Amino acid sequence: MRRNIIIILTFVGGLYYFLEFVLPGETGISKLIVEIGKVTLAIGACAFLLGVINLLRLHGTRVVLRRSGWHNSAALIVALFVMLIVHLVRYYSHAAEGDAVWRIYNLLWDNMRVPLDSTIFSLLAFYIVSAAYRSFRIKSGEAAVMMAAAVVVMLGQIPTGQEVTLWLKGYENDPGLWWLSRIRVDTIREWLMQYWNGAAQRGIIFGAAIGGLAMSLRIWLSLERGSFFDRQ
Amino acid sequence: MNGEAPSRMAWYDRLQKIDPRIIYLVVFVLVSIPFFVPIPVKMEVSPVVKKLYDKVEQIAEDNKRKKGPEKFVLLAMDWSPSVKAENQPQTAAMIEHLFRRGVRFAIMSHLLPEGPMMAERIAEHIAKKYNKRYGVDWVNFGFRQMRFADYMAFVRDMYAIISKDYRGTPIRDVPMMKNIRGLRDFALVFDVTGSGAYADWVYYAQPEAHFDIGVGVTAIIGPSIRPLIDAGQVVGMMEGLSGAAQYEQLLNIRGQASRGMGSQNLAHLWVIVALILGNIGYIASRRREKKLKKELK
Which of residues 40-59 of B touch A (CB under 8 A)? Predict the structure, then answer.
């Protein structure tokens, strides 16, 4: 019974959005879209709450049972609540900028969250250089072409790289040598990115779209055996 | 350890096995230099950046000539501090342009709560320079969790989805909103992101609302936008820090992106040098191997 209700709801929901999207102009069912949109917004907001509950269950258990790495879990819970409380107090007390709660908030946000987040991401720069150096070897003709393309793309997006061939721009209006102005590093980069990369990206998008369509149909018709039905 | 003299590594092997710590150190030094010695940055503006710039100019001109009802720009701020280095200068460059040309705009995010908050600070900072006021020249819708089909509701009735602004004011009480009937009054949605967030605007909102879409994305996302630009679904983009620096150049300002490009310039050159060194070592070692094999035969 429960399973049938879910199958029917999934099908009707999918059918509604499908018809709403493909039928031209405003139809009788169009009036519902805003109300349904509000409901899905509320569901989205509930997902945040579920996320917090899940985090607390997982990390709370680890702290209570003193499992390995419990202190990391404790730090996570403390950070979560400190940020949450400070933000709520700041928002609902309508505190003016410069008040104590604002200063605490700025301390947490500007001096902890932003630098931590940015630092983790910027470490990529170091790893990428090291990984490129270690793994990028011209072992075949294809590898040589790929490396040449990579170097041109990198040079084409930095000022020093562009400077190397910028003098060719002078031939732009020369009736016989205009083509020289087209073989600058920055124009070759643009050509590689727009046409060669664009073609490959288009192929990926088509492939992913067909896969997505097949997956959507399976979910819509409840043919997909997810974790929910497997537990039935 | 066992009393034997350590064997000396050949030069070509050394070139292939540079200590990663040395590579990291060089990256650190090169990235740091422009903080102390500013490097002048002059770049060729990419056509995709120019198209985005021209679109904003066109909106400004249309508004100035009162060609139809006033058009606005929606800044979709789907970024967080992790991608601040690239997305913040892009946001700042666009806001600078909008304030300068008097195009009124709204800020929001459908993906990350941090986005509107960070964009608000940037807007407040630049607003002082142009003497612009919140609520009159710009508004912040804040964060609304929206995915896929939610956009259809958002396009039909924006006010049903957004009832209060970021500061808690009922949205209909914000002076600027009196001129906005719905999402169709926005001529351009500029999505700044380090993810695929732009796709929701392209696939779900644009077919109904018919606005143009511009994007400011991290360099890693840039390649995936190219087919959309070719198809006309995306009007133009700022690709990474370099795209933001080119936009600043069009605005004739030296902002965060232009300053940051000094570091990126040197770091990219180091990647190329490291690649060349590694490959010189590799090719030399292969030649040496071949020579040894020949001698053994």
Answer: 41-44, 46-47
